[in-house]
Write a structure and sequence with these properties.
With 434 residues, the protein is α/β, with parallel strands linked by helices. It folds into two domains: 124 residues, Urease, subunit C, domain 1; 294 residues, TIM Barrel (Alpha-Beta Barrel), CATH 3.20.20.140. Helix content is 37%, strand content 22%. The chain has 15 helices and 15 strands. The strands form two sheets. It has an eight-stranded parallel sheet with strand order 5-6-7-8-9-10-11-12. A seven-stranded mixed sheet has the order 3-2-1-4-13-14-15. β2 and β3 form a beta hairpin. The longest helix is centred in the first third of the chain and has 17 residues. It is globular and about 65 Å long. The mean pLDDT is 98. The chain binds guanine and zinc ion (ZN). The site of zinc ion (ZN) has 6 residues, from β5. Catalyzes the hydrolytic deamination of guanine, producing xanthine and ammonia. Its cofactor is Zn(2+). One of its GO terms (molecular function) is zinc ion binding. It catalyses: guanine + H2O + H(+) = xanthine + NH4(+).
């Protein structure tokens, strides 16, 4: 790929903002530019400086007046749930049994999985998400389709076949042994191929026997650098059933701790209803509580208490959780996250929100040296954001007078229409403009 310059207003974070006035937490350049070469950001600075250091005949793509930011990162999403979104249920377990466990059975077929892999990455990119950590179905074929398509598109994607050997339909269960063997084969086929990363993925304690969690533990021991993704304490009835299935455990978190599944690369989806003891254990392990705001509201699961989680120094991430979640958009997700904090008298600043969806999630995944910022040397996964992308937004934008106000408008009213372009490893990749 030939080198090029992208010109626009640059925004990238260097640390988590302490508060809304923390201007040292980010880098903002009004007339900025990125020099892109070999799929990476070769340098980042003012347009004048970058233009000066590049060849005279280099292509310049001018994205002014729009914002150029690192692509969004979605650290908890379900690949086989594109047709589960918007399914009417009273709460989590009814939703899982009535719709989700029915739909996921269709991913046994390679053809079906391949079709949806294409649609899935189109939707992610349309919404400005360039990296995700995804649950595939129990079938290894679903993970093969996921990674094959991700590789073709040069995407950095984390994924895993779910391990689930009970409390689900027969066509959606594996065994402790087969889940171990299948995950191991996926690791050897896909982990580190292109930009793919395989995650060990026990769905949650309800759908895994103790024997299967032991197998997950064995995998984690054999492959300590892999991510582990699961669900934790999302819903009251789920917690009650979980504790019946694991009566020896101190609490829900203790189950995963017992099987050695809590580490710095463990992503705990939802993590809403936690005791102080559990928060302490998660913080000590360095595991990540992944907040899924649209899902938590849609399924009526509960309100994520960010202030309390922060007070316990638990690492946090924010994600869509499609198909429990209701939007692929990290902008819509940040809006709902803001409202959930509003209800708890906790004020989330837009500066912090945009850190969260980019560098924050990259740090949670341990990938901040590769993605999530505009730093030189990192992968050129980028988005171009238009804060006046709809008539409603354009009208409101007339009175916007600061970067903070602009970000707040984007998160409050923006969606896929706000994503003007998306670059994957330096290549323009918006599905509607290919
Ligand atoms: N817990 C176990 N599986 C799931 C799932 O697919 N979605 C959600 N939201 N919670 C879960
Ligand atoms: Zn989930």
């Amino acid at each position: 790929m030939t080198a090029k310059i992208l010109r626009g207003r640059l925004l990238s974070f260097v640390s988590r903002p302490a508060d809304r006035a923390d201007t040292a937490s980010y880098f903002y350049e009004e007339d900025g530019a990125l020099l892109i070469a070999e799929g990476r950001i070769a340098s980042c600075g003012t347009f004048q400086d970058i233009r000066g250091e590049a060849a005279d005949d280099i292509e310049v793509i001018d994205h002014r007046p729009h914002l150029i930011m690192p692509g969004f990162i979605d650290p908890h999403i379900h690949f086989p749930q594109m047709q589960v979104v918007s399914s009417y249920a009273a709460s989590l377990l009814e939703w899982l049994n009535t719709y989700t466990f029915v739909e996921e059975q269709r991913f046994a077929g390679r053809e079906h999985a391949e079709r949806f892999a294409g649609l899935f990455f189109d939707e992610l990119l349309r919404h400005g998400t360039t990296t995700a950590s995804a649950f595939c179905s129990v079938h290894p074929a679903s993970a093969d389709a996921f990674f094959e398509t991700a590789c073709q598109r040069k995407l950095m994607m984390i994924g895993g076949k779910v391990m689930m050997d009970r409390n689900a339909p027969g066509k959606l269960t594996d065994t402790p042994e087969s889940s171990y063997e299948d995950t191991k084969k996926l690791i050897s086929r896909w982990h580190g191929r292109g930009r793919s990363l395989v995650a060990i993925t026990p769905r949650f304690a309800i759908t895994s026997t103790p024997e299967q969690l032991e197998m997950a533990q064995t995998l984690a021991g054999e492959f300590p650098d892999l991510h582990i993704q699961t669900h934790l304490s999302e819903n009251d009835a789920e917690i009650e059933l979980t504790m019946k299935l694991y009566p020896e455990a101190k609490d829900y978190t203790d189950i995963y701790a017992h099987y050695g599944l809590l580490g710095r690369k463990t992503l705990l989806g939802h993590a809403i209803h936690l005791s102080d003891r559990e928060m302490g254990a998660i913080a000590e392990a360095g595991s990540i509580a992944v907040h899924c705001p649209t899902s938590n509201l849609f399924l009526g699961s509960g309100l994520f208490d960010l202030k309390r989680i922060d007070a316990h120094n638990v690492r946090v991430a924010v994600a869509t959780d499609i198909g429990g979640g209701t939007s692929y958009s990290m902008l819509r997700t940040l809006d709902e996250a803001y409202k959930i904090q509003q209800l708890q008298k906790n004020r989330l600043s837009p500066i912090e929100s945009f850190w969260w969806a980019t560098r924050g999630n990259a740090e949670a995944l341990g990938l901040e040296k590769r993605i999530g910022t505009l730093a030189a040397g990192t992968d050129a996964d980028l988005i171009v954001l238009d804060s006046g992308s709809t008539p409603t937004m354009a009208i409101r934008k007339e009175t916007v007078g600061s970067l903070e106000e602009e970000l707040f408008l984007l998160q409050t009213m923006g969606d896929d229409r706000s994503i003007r372009e998306v670059y994957v490893a330096g290549r323009a990749s918006h599905p509607d403009r290919r």
